[in-house]
Design brief:
The protein is an alpha/beta fold. The chain has 2 domains: about 170 residues, Beta Barrel (Lyase, Ornithine Decarboxylase, Chain A, domain 1), CATH 2.40.37.10; about 240 residues, Alanine racemase (TIM Barrel, Alpha-Beta Barrel), CATH 3.20.20.10. Helix content is about 25%, strand content about 25%. A hairpin with a 2-residue loop joins strand 19 and strand 20. Helix 2 runs parallel beside helix 9. The longest helix is centred in the N-terminal third of the chain and has 15 residues. It binds pyridoxal-5'-phosphate.
């Protein structure tokens, strides 16, 4: 981990120009920082499109992009253009995706605690599927008794614990999500849904967690779910999302195609006749982006460590704080440079826990004013972020073929007062 940044952690079109500086989507990254300011999310549009295409060719019609990973109108539009459906997990996500012009019949509504208002909004526009998560939700849909009975999938928990962080592990019996298979709740839910005129049960859904590297976990869950769902003769079976991505050197993750192939083989083995659906988020968006920061303060504590403070922090990437996630760093002015020095990259929020990269490899000549990049920040960064300390949220730029367009502008001080009635 002292050599240059490996390009396989960077967006697909990442390259170096004649000066040895990093380009993404044909745009010099330092120029982007100068033009749009930092901190800044830079998304490689080609990378996003290629991952969407890979998902569609691996899983076919109905594969959905999990909007929670990264959502803005440009992203929803892009995923739709590339043939994906979109999974939304709240009325807010539904609003953004509809505002992007995505037809309702390409949208799947998720959520473990959908309100009447959210359900009604989804029913009024006619979303493609509602993934029903609880008996209370069945009651709520029946209570609404909308003239257009929705097609629903029931989310079940197969009792499989994915090897990932507890906060993003969802397939175990002890979960706030879904109906347990082993407890018999899933069977009861099927009976309730089948007996209801207020909904049409078309399938079973499961999602074991996120950032799952061990593909066998998906197959183990599928076995339980298929044994439960096949006798029901339902048309659809969703394997959820959750495919992991590599964030740092030494990690490797299966591609979407390999995941799709493995699920198809498992389905063949298990005699699954239902159409298999999936909803990857991270695997589409994570590696598509890098975040650019400006180094503002370097504090060296002899015999302890060096802190490198940048103009962002857990407000644009809460994953290190939430899950202890690792990231790496490099300097786009010279991505070919060795990175023999270890520093701690921290943000500007008033918390000691505001750490972006615990053990960051950087070149010896890292200096104040440098633009520092963290790769693989395209999922669960911008979306999970906050403006704690009223630190303004970064802009998001899409780059492609030498063009850069701002798809989410930087937050302003006026935005901070937009909901504050004084
Ligand atoms: C139901 C559901 N589907 C899909 C996803 C997307 O997961 P990932 O981004 O890991 O692919 C999630 C993430 O939490 C989820 O809860």
């Amino acid at each position: 981990m002292t050599g240059p940044i490996p390009f396989d952690l960077l967006p697909e079109t990442a390259a170096t120009d004649a000066a040895g500086q990093l380009t993404v989507g044909g745009c010099n990254v330092l120029d982007l920082a100068a033009e749009f300011g930092t901190s800044l999310f830079v998304y490689d549009e080609e990378h996003l499109r290629n991952r969407c295409r890979e998902a569609v060719s691996s899983f076919g019609e109905g594969v959905a992009f999990a909007g929670k990973a990264f959502l803005c109108r440009a992203m929803a539009k892009l995923a739709h253009e590339e043939g994906m459906h979109i999974d939304v997990a709240s009325g807010g996500e539904l609003h953004v995706v509809l505002a992007a012009g995505v037809p309702a019949d390409r949208i799947v509504l998720h959520g473990n605690n959908k309100s009447d208002t959210e359900l009604l909004a989804a029913l009024d526009v006619g979303v493609s599927r509602i993934v029903v998560d609880s008996f209370d939700e069945i009651d709520r849909i029946e209570g609404i008794n909308h003239p257009r009975a929705p097609k629903v999938l029931l989310r079940v928990t197969p009792g499989v614990k994915a090897e990932t962080h507890d906060f993003i592990s969802t397939g175990q019996d002890d979960s706030k999500f879904g109906f347990g298979v082993s407890s018999g709740q899933a069977q009861l839910a099927v009976e309730r849904a089948n007996a209801s005129d207020a909904m049409e049960l078309v399938g079973i859904h499961n999602h074991i967690g996120s950032q799952v590297f061990r593909v066998e976990s998906f197959a183990e869950a599928l076995k339980v779910v298929a044994e439960f769902s096949e006798p029901l003769g339902l048309a659809e079976l969703s394997v959820g999302g959750g495919l992991g991505v590599a964030y740092v050197e030494g990690e490797s993750a299966p591609s979407i195609s390999a995941w799709g192939m493995m699920m198809a083989e498992a389905c063949d083995r298990l005699g699954v006749s239902a159409r298999v659906l999936a909803e990857p988020g991270r695997a589409i968006a994570a590696k598509a982006a890098i975040t650019l920061y400006t180094v503002g303060t370097i504090k060296t504590l002899p015999d302890i460590r060096t802190y490198v403070a940048v103009d962002g922090g857990f407000g644009d990437n809460p994953r290190p704080v939430m899950y202890g996630s690792d990231y790496t760093t490099f300097l786009p002015r010279d991505p070919g440079a060795d990175r023999p020095r270890r520093v701690r990259v921290v943000g500007k929020h008033c918390e000691s826990g505001d750490i972006l990269v615990r053990d960051a490899p950087v070149p010896f000549d890292l200096a104040l004013g440098d633009i520092l990049a963290t790769p693989v920040t395209g999922a669960y960064g911008q979306g999970m972020g906050s403006n704690y300390n009223k630190v303004l949220r970064p802009a998001v730029v899409f780059v492609r073929d030498g063009d850069a367009r701002v798809v989410v502008r930087r937050e302003t001080n006026e935005d901070l007062l937009a909901t504050d009635l004084g």
